[in-house]
Amino acid sequence: MPPSLHPSIASPLGDVTTERLDLRRFRVSDLDALAEVFAIAEVWHFPFGRGFTRDETADFLNRQIDSWTTRGFGTWLAIERATRRVVGFVGLSVPAFLPEILPAVEVGWRLHPDVWGRGYAAEGACAAMREAFTTMGLDDICSLPQATNTASLRVCERIGMRREREVIIPPTDRRGAVAAILYRMSAQVWRSREREPS
After folding, report:
1. Which CATH number fits domain 16-138: 3.40.50.80, 3.40.630.30, 3.40.50.720, 3.40.50.1970?
2. pTM for the full model?
3. What pLDDT sits at residue 1?
């Protein structure tokens, strides 16, 4: 039997509501709204330098739905509560693109440029970390922002993740090799931070 790509989980991930976001698992009917966001070049500037085609978005969507079905978790569709607008995704995935750190679970995000700078990525990522360490019972999660993606590096720092080292993500048929920064958060550190007075 091949080794697992991710640690075992205690319970499947559920949908979550934060102060400003509704975060839920993907549905096939989300394609139109997601394709509109993913077509924006800035959303996928790191690492592709361009927006996604509708077919690429459909492939992403199908892989997320499959992840929820087979693994019990995945990234959430992110809906802005005030406007009911789809603004991208945030949540948990398996960083299969970097075999050297597997088994692992990564927290990540992709959001519409219109909502950049509002703290939505940090808000959603904190919700994902909470669910990873409580509902799913994980001991550790990571994040792998591209080394030149200063905005995502700042999000990792803001949510308390520890910068570990630079890694090289191998090339694929769609992009070259990518330098990224490996961040980690342990359940132990997360729990100690949660107990700190605000």
Report:
1. 3.40.630.30
2. 0.94
3. 35
